[in-house]
Specification:
Two copies of one chain form a homodimer. With 762 residues, chain A is an alpha+beta fold. Chain A has three domains: 10-300, Beta-galactosidase, Chain A, domain 5, CATH 2.70.98.40; 304-692, Glycosyltransferase (Alpha/alpha barrel), CATH 1.50.10; 693-762, Sandwich (Maltose phosphorylase, domain 3). In chain A, 31% of the residues lie in helices and 23% in strands. Chain A has 19 helices and 32 strands. In chain A, β24 and β25 form a beta hairpin. In chain A, α9 packs antiparallel against α10 (440-461), α10 packs across α11 (490-509) and α17 (629-640) packs antiparallel against α18. Chain A is globular. Chain A starts with 9 loop residues before the first strand and ends in a 7-residue tail after the last strand. The A-B interface holds A 72-74, 76-79, 391-394, 412-414, 417-418, 463-467, 474-475, 484-485, 487, 555-556, 558-562, 576-583, 585-588 and B 72-74, 76-79, 391-394, 412-414, 417-418, 463-467, 474-475, 484-485, 487, 555-556, 558-562, 576-583, 585-588.
């Protein structure tokens, strides 16, 4: 099952660069060159359009969603009847370019000297190429764009045109909401438009929700324009004579102003947008770009991972940091992180349990406020999670498998009604965040309420066995999605018990706190309930055998028919596409870590012997048919000392999308999966552990690296950690001391700290 | 969960009679008064239509089906992408009746002296009533209809009209294919029509299949008509002046000629239909009705069950016999028995495993040729079953959960990919048929091939456990549909082992037979395969504990959370409608017999002690949310000696539809379920067992019956069995002896045989 790189981009330290147009990678490039700023995102499509090539024009706004037109055909209680999805929205970069009556279209005619460049230090995407017209004239075109990171509503576009002889140019700038979702339906209705004082605007609304988008634009150019409005679209048409070898430059300023749930009228949206646009135009394109460069400088000053002696992964990890930061940096607690970020329509734009388990650490150690906001998304959607629990005939709050707005967005009962990783993941996220930051107020204001509601859900979804001797979960699916409707999945039982215990401990610790007393009263937390939680925790069935040190993945797992993954023909992968659906679920194949996953999350609770035993047992059964799988295995391999395996699993982590390893980058970037590549380095090679009392490190140096360097913001202290042949060096700007466990020893780390590498060679 | 009778029909020995129009039962009556003759069926709708009342006009032809317009939204291998269904077709009974410009419509105005009568001794359905026109005139109307049982294409309709004053009558006779399936889509296209030589006709074709229906009609009346053709419809319009107190009578002769798979052209269908219609008209209405009476006399002479001292069940069981015979009497091996027969659209007209397990015995002991043809349906659809096995990544033949044409018609993977009762049921049906009839040729010509293909399927769908110590089925659902994706369901394992063993035994017994040698060569049955079958059978995991005599329903069943059915509020039933979908599947509630089901099918293999132990354990967990459940429990209760329980479970068996116990008779009759009421008497009270070497009886007399009498055709000997206070009397017309085990003793039964009742009083 070796995955093979499909590399066509230049390897550069701070840029993604395509030299020569790779028309066969057209839609892959659209994903890779996607821009976003948490508020909105655009795929790297060509402004002028492209015919006859694979392309998905995509423009998305975080939180602008709609419901499917058709209900789910299976009607039972607890099965989601109408799914929701992030809707492909206003195309505010679109132009139509006609020179001497010939439409510029790279789908019809190949360009020369094509260069596309994404500068990670400014977020500027440029595309330059030459184009020979049918009449023989040579045209040189340059398109640039960026999204403001500081003023998230603002987008910038610059187009320059030069021909080697006089030419007639027709250039149209669109604000176009005639965009199709899944290339089939448009989900917008036209609500308002205007053209006044050099500003043109269009306001549209989603079909069945109250999502509103008002986009306004001003174009800096010396030419006159004609304004046209058609349904769901406004355009500015420019016709002009371009002299040979002279350059025409157009700078488009756009402000997109949205209301996710109709909280603002179109009048308000328009007024705000015009004000902001005027400000943007006053400040100008260059200043905005400088501003962006400052933003990205700060990001890389504080978040960069440097890898010495490995340019390929160096680029990969920087691209990861760039994309994670683009997608989410925690400005709005009503945003979450979609599996594909804002770069495509696959997974419907939904956020999964990846947010708390795979993405949270990146923010936790770089910008704790963003981590906090990510958790607040769950607090603000408690209402929906409580409604979902009720749908499932349970109490408390059940967090959805897939969501944009807090509602369950997955209409497959076999996932949505049986997988509780999101709920236990939120509880874990709260624990993890508070454990690292010591932000106890978060517990008082938000965390405790979420924990209590999740606990109520788990307590009512869990069941006692017939003899009432143990408690646990029946009819569930753990993280390993190859085992369906099993009983006593150990991940689920373990995580539920951890949730119960953490909640009980906090209740006990803070039982005299006014806020907690009030909360318990409001949520009707009484002694009888607490006793029930304690009993369920005490009798939670955890299938552990102390003679083998093995956790059984679920009751009966050991006796399942065995299939050796190496016996499966390569052409059978992915199994979901080649095996009969039921066949996937009746053997001991594992899709992604399940036992290993809770051992990773609560790493400090398990001995190296236990980790090794379970890794040795489960890894050979795992086929990694989830992009979330290899990094966790690499982290275990690092800890156990399987250095080669650690490198092998790290293999494509940082470049999953740049090299299109899964052959589906065209659908959008694996945003939450690439978060795992950050963990792979920091938790894997550097051996960070953050679930214990103190931060712990256990660094080693992959054989082919000269060294690597990363940052941790820990208890308000910025640490720069360098691992190289000289040892582990931890630098900080201040003298303040923090306790860090390194190679199992506690150290007080201040301004500068050095320790030799202790990791044994294999 | 007591079910309550909703009785509104007269209790009569050989008729179903409604006195006074029960408009609130409109669609229930449409089902109850449905007519059929295996070839076609019509619901008991009013010929003249009815507005503003619940009604489903339904006319069906066995084998005329179409595919759903929309594909299943979940796309995985093995999940059916397009379901098929019996399509609502040509309405050949429809009329429009206008008198003095007022349309007769019982939905708008109540009739007087309304009587509807279905005569079970002729199959004639009549409806008489008086109707007061807005202008005060009184009209008396009588509608009669029957379907010929001997010439299945023919349908007859008679309408008589009398008014107490002169009136202007407009009467239109339609052949109308503008019928809606599921009240939403019409699945027919107009292909041909004509009106010549007093015969009018219409030919239509299904939308996506090659189902063809050609209907022709001739109307006997003294009046002139006008012919009209519109899309998918032809009409004859009669306008005439009716003198006061004179009667106008119209007799419509219809021939419906179908081609299920386009095997005849419309020209051929038309020609044949006209010929047959001419013959029908020549013979006339009265002769045809006499013919039908002869048919039904023979049926009741040979199939009747008489119950002395219980008029209610007497009517019920006769209605059952009437409906079973109407629906299927085995004239065409391409027909099967839909769960709702030809009386409605629920369950899409599909046949299930009920055919072999619930319906077959009725035919086996009344008309073995019909039982044989029912099994031949499976032989003729082997090709589809083999394709289905391939879809499931298996070899051999997998029979569908639900089908009309042999293809799998169920698009829910959790049933269609996990329930193998149809396949093991077909194997059981072959065993049962051959065991009773000794028709060994059936094995040579059809049975062996089916058994081998089913065996191949079971062998490749079954799996060895990880240690290769036992074989069985993983990820399955047994007959109890409340346990989903379980391992080692004992029903499935037991029935598969029985299939393996029966197949191996036959192979061994007939290994020198030319036909079997040829067959094995064609199917590539070699020693290696036979060894594999033997190993799988030998190591099949059957979860039996000889200390408790209990079979565990599946691996892990005993440890499931317990729910006492009595603790469930009545308003929660049916659970499918009130419980979250996943909740149904994670406790020890049982929907319908599972362990008890294989113990019923192979009854002679189990001791009374074992039967009692398993009944006592499983019955209290069973909520009978399938209409197939109570009768099997009644049969066990009879054998064990729980006489009151036997009566309680028998309770509504014979009158499930007549009294609308499940409140869904409006959707169609529970045709296959009411077959269980025949078994309930014959296998339950009379204790018939037919899976052993000899036929066995173990009769008792339910306390409130004076006696009962039924027929068995066994090895070409017609037995009339009477059970009353005088004992068990077995009469036959001939001296030929057959061995019957009665109360455990072998007897040679000849012309007349009497034995005292031995059943102990409770």
């Amino acid at each position: 099952m070796g995955k093979i790189a499909n590399r066509y981009l230049e390897v550069l330290p701070f840029a993604i660069r395509e030299e020569g147009f790779h028309s066969d990678r057209s839609s892959v490039s659209e994903s890779i060159f996607a821009l976003a700023n948490e508020y909105m995102g655009v795929r790297g499509t060509f402004e002028e359009g492209v015919s006859s090539l694979d392309s998905l024009r995509g423009s998305y706004f975080n939180g602008i969603y709609d419901y499917a037109l058709e209900p789910t055909p299976i009607h039972y209680k607890g099965i989601v009847q109408r799914t929701h999805f992030m809707v492909n929205a206003m195309d505010w970069l679109k132009v139509t370019l006609i020179i001497d009556q010939e439409q510029i279209d790279l789908g019809k005619k190949a360009p020369h000297n094509f260069v596309r460049n994404l500068d990670l230090k400014s977020g500027l995407l440029t595309r330059e190429f030459s184009y020979t017209l049918d009449n023989g004239k040579e045209v040189k075109l340059c398109f640039s764009r960026f999204l403001s990171m500081n003023h998230a509503h603002r987008g910038y576009q610059k187009i320059s045109i030069r021909a080697n002889q006089d030419a007639e140019v027709s250039l149209t700038f669109h604000l176009d909401s005639n965009v199709l979702m899944w290339k089939s339906d448009c989900y917008f209705t036209d609500q308002d438009h205007f053209d006044a004082n050099k500003i043109s605007g269009l306001g549209v609304k989603t079909l069945t929700t109250e999502g509103r988008v008002y986009s306004v634009m001003e174009i800096d150019s010396p030419y006159e324009y004609e304004f046209v409005h058609t349904n769901r679209e406004v355009k500015r048409l420019y016709h002009f004579h371009l002299k040979g070898n002279e350059q025409a430059v157009f700078t488009r300023y756009v402000v997109n102003n949205i209301a996710k749930q109709g909280e603002k009228t179109f009048g308000e949206l328009k007024k705000e947008a015009i004000q902001e646009l005027e400000q943007a135009v006053n400040e100008g394109y260059d200043l905005a770009l400088t501003d962006n460069s400052l933003f990205w400088s700060r990001v890389f000053d504080q978040r960069d991972i440097e890898i010495f002696g490995d340019e390929v992964n160096q680029q990969g990890i920087r691209y990861t940091i760039f994309q994670l930061t683009q997608t989410y940096h925690g400005v709005d607690p009503s945003d979450n992180i979609g599996a594909k970020g804002l770069t495509g329509e696959a997974y419907s734009g939904h956020a999964f349990w990846d947010s708390e388990t795979y993405c949270l650490p990146f923010y936790l150690f770089n910008e704790p406020e963003a981590a906090r906001n990510l958790l607040l998304f769950r607090y603000h959607t408690l209402k929906q999670a409580k409604a979902r629990a009720k749908d499932l005939d349970c109490e408390g709050a059940c967090y959805p498998i897939a969501t944009l707005n807090g509602e369950e967005g997955c209409n497959l009962w076999q996932h949505a009604s049986t997988q509780f990783q999101p709920s236990t993941g939120v509880a874990y996220g709260i624990f993890h965040y508070v454990n690292v930051t010591k932000d106890i107020d978060f517990i008082f204001d938000y965390g405790m309420e979420m924990l209590l509601e999740i606990t109520k859900f788990l307590l009512t979804r869990g069941q006692w066995n017939s003899r009432h001797t143990h408690f646990g979960f029946y009819g569930v699916m753990g993280p390993d999605e190859f085992q369906l409707m099993v009983n006593h999945n150990t991940y689920t039982n373990y995580m539920a018990k951890a949730t119960f215990d953490y909640t009980l401990n906090l209740l006990n610790e803070f039982r005299t706190q006014e806020k907690i007393i009030k909360l318990c009263k409001r949520l009707e937390i009484n002694e009888e309930l607490i006793t029930r939680i304690k009993e369920a925790s005490a009798k939670m069935l955890i299938l552990f055998d102390s003679t083998t040190n093995l956790f059984e993945q679920h009751l009966g797992f050991y006796d399942l028919p065995h299939i050796d993954p190496d016996s499966i023909p390569v052409t059978d992968f992915p199994l979901y596409s080649h095996w009969s659906y039921d066949r996937i679920y009746r053997n001991d194949l594992i899709k992604q870590p399940d036992v290993l996953m809770f051992m990773f999350l609560y790493s400090s609770r398990f001995s190296l012997v236990e980790k090794k035993a379970n890794y040795d047992f489960y890894e050979p059964k795992t086929i990694h048919e989830s992009s979330l799988s290899p990094s966790v295995h690499s982290i275990f391999a690092s800890e156990i000392g399987y250095k080669q395996a650690a490198l092998d699993f790290f293999g494509f982590a940082t470049r999953m999308d740049l090299d299109d390893y899964n052959r589906n980058t065209n659908e959008g970037l694996h945003v939450t999966s690439i978060a795992a590549s950050w963990m792979n380095i920091v938790y894997g090679f550097a051996g960070l552990r953050s679930d214990g009392e103190h931060l712990a490190l256990n660094p080693h140096l992959p054989t082919y690296w000269q060294g690597y360097k990363f940052h941790l913001l820990y208890r308000n202290k910025r640490l720069v950690i360098t691992i190289n042949s000289a040892g582990v060096t931890i630098d900080s700007l201040d003298d303040k001391k923090v306790t860090i466990v390194i190679y199992g020893q506690n150290y007080e780390v201040g301004k500068h700290f050095v320790l030799p590498l202790q990791y044994e060679e294999e």
